[in-house]
Amino acid sequence: MVSDFFFPNMGGVEEHIYNLSQCLLQKGHKVVIMTHSYEDRVGVRYMTNGLKVYYLPIKVFYNQCVLPTMICNVPLIRYILIREHVEIIHGHSAFSALAHEAMLVGNLMGLKTVFTDHSLFGFADASAVITNKFIQISVADCNHCICVSHTGKENTVLRAKVDSRRVSVIPNAVDTYSFLPDPSQRSKSQITVVVVSRLVYRKGVDLTAQIIGDLCLKYKDICFLIAGDGPKRWLLEEIREKRGLQDRVTLLGSLEHSQVRNVLVKGDIFFEHIVD
Prior knowledge:
By secondary structure, this protein is of the alpha/beta class. The chain has 2 domains: 12-169, Rossmann fold, CATH 3.40.50.2000; 176-270, Rossmann fold (3-Layer(aba) Sandwich), CATH 3.40.50. 33% of the residues lie in helices and 21% in strands. It is an enzyme of class 2 (transferase). Residues 184-271 form the Glycosyl transferase family domain.
């Protein structure tokens, strides 16, 4: 498993990689994770069930990603692949330069490569154009791609110009029973909408802020409970102040993973982020 995004950083990709690795370990497979260093977390660490994690001594370039040189880290990646007798390289996230670099090295070594695309991207802005060209080159020789939704598959096929027959859809698993709303924790006089997400542009926070203002104006019995933090938090704070919604929009900030369920069960509606 290779990605720039892994613990101690928190997010959906990080959770996905960890849980998938644990399931593979339980089935008897050997799993090794490769990511970059996080502050003083450098070298080899072991997690639950002996999950081995390589925190490579590579500096972060932007947004938790390493500089996409495609060649500078070849000796280090090659050494780990040989040392661990790796047969399959599974890269995660279109944004992860390390994942694409590891898949490239694996292809050159004759190893099987799999890529999971967790996100939706546009086609028009500069960032999307660069990322789409990058992923098109990266998955050209990838053995198979995985997307987490059918919409995601359509997006990936168009962006990466990959044959749709080489792309499978495996939805993220959710134990819905664990997140059933708890009537004892909900207001009987209001409809509570819960939002749990990183407050960044990619998660559709700009649209969320607009929707909050419009819905609160139209429906007097609706309120929002928002958990998460990020550079777009100011936008939610601004809409709350401008519209005078202090009593109807609650910003909880960052939460520990163990606290997320206790927030979700307080709502009548869970408002999924627009873009992942």
